[in-house]
Write a structure and sequence with these properties.
By secondary structure, this protein is of the alpha+beta class. The chain is 30% helix and 27% strand.
Amino acid sequence: MLQLLEPPQRTASKIDAQTFFSQRHRKAIAQFLGSLGGRWSLSDLIIELLSPCTEQEDLGKTLQQVNRPPAKWEVYERILRVPYYVVYDRYENYLRAFQLIGTRYKAIALPENRLWLEELELGLGLWQGTYQQTIGLWLHWYNPAGWVPTLGEQAEQERQRAEQEYQRAERLAQYLRSQGIDPDNLS
């Protein structure tokens, strides 16, 4: 059973970040995810949409304050040890990625604003196109075959495929009728 963590008592001058996310709790969460089946992990990738007011924290440029929980960067890097951390500035259309090497995040060069994650056989990049009637640069998944269609695009592709199948069946029925065969009474 997954339990919520209670915040630690703030009696010390500096809160121990491990109190928030102890190894025991991480194992319990991993066991819970494993019980769901499939290939689950705590997280292979964090995607942060950069906000101007939290940019310094999001990029790990702030120091932990006394009697305050650890900053996001510290949680991802040192406590959860998430292998990849991606930050996207949607105001400047700037994508940055970091990989956990040893105990620290190191910046990754992103040719063509794309990050390929070999372990996941999936990539994340900036895609120029229209989404929900808005033209712009969008964060988008891709695989070796190209950009992965959104759920809306997949639904539209399926609708088109079904329409083509329906038209094919109608043409076949017309042909059968032209040959004197009733397609509704085939035995």
